[in-house]
């Protein structure tokens, strides 16, 4: 079950994760993956807790690992995670106007990639592995092929209207 971005860290859940890996520092990446699966990002409190409770680790080491790997997010993500491909095939076939429409429609603040209401987050990726469907986006693991600014606007409207129900 995913937590909302306003959730506080449940240290009992963190303990259960650490225990499942026998508090072994060799499994740090797997531990961080489990924490991120729960919270959709790595809360600072969780990383500090792991660094203080796994032998031979420190909070600084945990943060260093988490910030090194692109798979980890140190910022809260939205309920709807939008990934826009800007790889060669998608770029050539018009991913830039799609990206600009998403930014316009969701009114992202400069330098922020999650909306203030916590519903949407945006990530620009180099490849989604869907070059034949370009330009493509992914929202919560669902691939949307051959996107246009109008199509992405309709998808966002649909998601937003579902939230109001």
The averaged pLDDT comes out at: 91
The helical percent reads 40-55%
Given helix and strand content, the structural type is alpha+beta
Tell me the series of helices and strands, N- to C-terminal. HHHHEHHEEEH
Provide a count of the helices: 7
Strand order of the largest sheet: 2-1-3-4
Outline: elongated
Largest sheet: 4 strands, mixed
Low-pLDDT residue intervals, each spanning 5 or more residues: 1-7
State the main characteristics.
165 residues, alpha+beta, four-stranded mixed beta sheet
Structure overview:
The protein is of the alpha+beta class and 165 residues long. Helices cover 45% and strands 11% of the residues. The chain contains seven helices and four strands. The protein has helices at residues 11-20, 28-39, 44-53, 59-68, 88-92, 95-106, 149-164; strands at residues 80-85, 120-125, 137-139, 142-144. It has a four-stranded mixed beta sheet with strand order 2-1-3-4, covered by helices on one side. Strand 3 (137-139) and strand 4 (142-144) form a beta hairpin. The longest helix is centred in the C-terminal third of the chain and has 16 residues, at 149-164. The model is unreliable at 1-7 (pLDDT under 50).
Quick gist of this model?
The chain has seven helices and four strands, in the order H-H-H-H-E-H-H-E-E-E-H.
Task: Draw up the topology in text.
Layout: H1 11-20, H2 28-39, H3 44-53, H4 59-68, E1 80-85, H5 88-92, H6 95-106, E2 120-125, E3 137-139, E4 142-144, H7 149-164
Parallel strand pairs: 1-2
Antiparallel strand pairs: 1-3, 3-4
């Amino acid at each position: 079950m995913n937590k909302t971005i306003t959730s506080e860290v449940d240290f009992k859940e963190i303990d259960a994760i650490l225990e499942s890996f026998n508090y072994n520092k060799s499994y740090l990446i797997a531990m961080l993956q489990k924490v991120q699966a729960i919270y959709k990002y790595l809360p600072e409190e969780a990383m500090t807790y792991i660094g203080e409770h796994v032998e031979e680790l420190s909070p600084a080491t945990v943060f260093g690992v988490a910030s090194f790997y692109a798979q980890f997010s140190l910022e809260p993500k939205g309920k709807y995670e939008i990934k826009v491909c800007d790889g060669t095939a998608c770029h050539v076939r018009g991913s830039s106007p799609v990206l600009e429409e998403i930014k316009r429609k969701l009114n992202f603040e400069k330098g922020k990639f999650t909306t203030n209401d916590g519903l949407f987050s945006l990530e620009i990726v180099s490849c989604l592995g869907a070059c034949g469907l370009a330009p493509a986006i992914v929202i919560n693991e669902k691939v949307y092929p051959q996107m246009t600014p109008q199509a992405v606007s309709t998808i966002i409207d649909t998601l937003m209207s579902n939230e109001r129900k």
